[in-house]
UniProtKB/TrEMBL annotation:
Signal peptide range: 1-25
Species the sequence originates in: Roseateles oligotrophus
This protein's name: Water stress and hypersensitive response domain-containing protein
Family matches, as PROSITE patterns: PROKAR_LIPOPROTEIN
Biological process (GO), any one: response to desiccation
A Pfam family assignment: LEA_2
Lineage: Bacteria, Pseudomonadati, Pseudomonadota, Betaproteobacteria, Burkholderiales
Length: 158
C-alpha cells in the first residue's frame, strides 16, 4: 500500500516536472517572421506559377529553436491564392535569426490579375498577407503571420 502511494506520488511529481520543462522550452515571445525575398522561378508553359519565398525567422527567446518544417499560405485581398511547404533541419540560435526558403505555388492567377487591375500597373506592389506555421520536433506548430507588399512580375522579365 505504501509502495503504491509512493509510486503514484513519484509519477505525479515526474509528470509535473515534465510539463514544466515543456512549458519552459517554449519561446517567451512570439516569433517574428519577415519576408526577405519573393522571387519568380522559371515557368513552364501552362504550369502553375511558382515563386521562391525567402523568410527570416527571428528568435526572441533564450532557447535555441529547432525547426523541422514550415508551411505558408499566401492571401491576396483576404483570399488564399497560393501555398507551400518545406521540410527543414534548421536551428535558430537564442536571440538570433535564421533563414529558410519555401517554394510557393500560386494557383489563382485570376485573382492576381484582378488585383493588378485594381492597384494599377503590373510592376506595382500588391498588399498581401502571409500566414503559416513553423514546426518544431514533436510536431509542435508555431503560428506566424506577416503583412507586406509583393510584386508578381513574370519570371524571365516581362
Amino acid at each position: 500500500m505504501v509502495t503504491r502511494r509512493l509510486c503514484s506520488g513519484l509519477l505525479a511529481g515526474l509528470l509535473v516536472l515534465l510539463l514544466a520543462a515543456c512549458a519552459g522550452s517554449a519561446p517567451n515571445e512570439p516569433l517574428r517572421v519577415s519576408v526577405a525575398q519573393f522571387q519568380p522561378l522559371q515557368q513552364q508553359e501552362g504550369a502553375q506559377a511558382r515563386y521562391r519565398l525567402d523568410l527570416r525567422v527571428h528568435n526572441p527567446s533564450r532557447w535555441v529553436l529547432g525547426l523541422v518544417g514550415a508551411d505558408v499560405q499566401l492571401l491576396l485581398r483576404g483570399k488564399a491564392i497560393g501555398s507551400g511547404v518545406v521540410a527543414l533541419d534548421l536551428s535558430v540560435p537564442a536571440f538570433g535569426e535564421g533563414a529558410l526558403s519555401i517554394e510557393v505555388g500560386v494557383h489563382d492567377m485570376v485573382a492576381v490579375r484582378q488585383a493588378i487591375g485594381l492597384y494599377g500597373a503590373a510592376d506595382r506592389p500588391l498588399p498581401v498577407l502571409l500566414t503559416g506555421h513553423l514546426t518544431r520536433p514533436g510536431l509542435l506548430a508555431l503560428p506566424w503571420r506577416s503583412e507586406g507588399e509583393l510584386r508578381f512580375a513574370r519570371a524571365g522579365g516581362g
